[in-house]
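[audit] Reproducing an earlier prediction to check determinism. Same input, same settings, fresh worker. If the tokens differ from the archived copy the diff job will pick it up downstream; this log only records the rerun itself.
[audit] input (269 residues):
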Amino acid sequence: MKKIIILAVFISSLFGMDNSKVGFSELAKHYISIAKEADKVAIGNQRIGHTIYGPYELEHNATLRKEFETAKAKEGDFCKEFFNDLLALKNIEVIPPVVRNVDYNNTTLTKEMGACHKMGMDIEFLNTIPAQTEPHYPTKFSLWKTHILNPKKENLLFMQSYAAKTNYYPMIYVLDKGLCKQAISKQNFNFKYDKQLVYEAQVIGSFNNWEFQLIRYKGNEYFIEIADHGNAGNYKYRHIRIWLYGDNTEWRVEKPECAKDFYKYIGEK
């Protein structure tokens, strides 16, 4: 049976819709404006065609660098175009959620999730939440309809939000309603322990100032993270990290398709 593809990632807050063209929130636009004025930029992963090239590999492998440059000349530089458009706040459509930060028994959430609502998505997933998180179960839920894994098939992007003293820890999943229906029909089904349903679930660190949004760009869907890492380098630089994920990433959160770190000089503290 085909596995349900699941992504779990810690983030902190969502963009809002503020216009019909580019619906980034004021906070997201503030982070982007800092990135736009950066004095230093460190390039991370870069997607050329269907291949993702990491910075370490490109730096230490001359053959790979040659392959990369040849592919870029042929396929174009997708990541460069994306970051140019993002910093200019153009050509990017923000996809709003069906519901945002609602209770699990919310009527719209229940209806739109279909069989996936019966999978116990209101419980902790595989004990991946940090020990300091209280309580150890999600308290609010958000949902998007998405084609991020298959342009011809609609899936669900579902977010659990876990409360904590200083942060909250959302976890995101991409679910297939048809596969959910198959799963709950199994005898003695228990989502938390039925590993056959899990393709991949990984977690990264949380930041209070982390923005997330499902977007549409060049006809395809992606999700984007914008993280404000605060000051770096003995407080000389403000550090903004921007990562883009799509179906090319194999849903491994440490391997975005496009990544850049932006550093704006702010002087000594």
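[audit] rerun output stored. Observation attached for the diff report: The radius of gyration is 19 Å.
[audit] end
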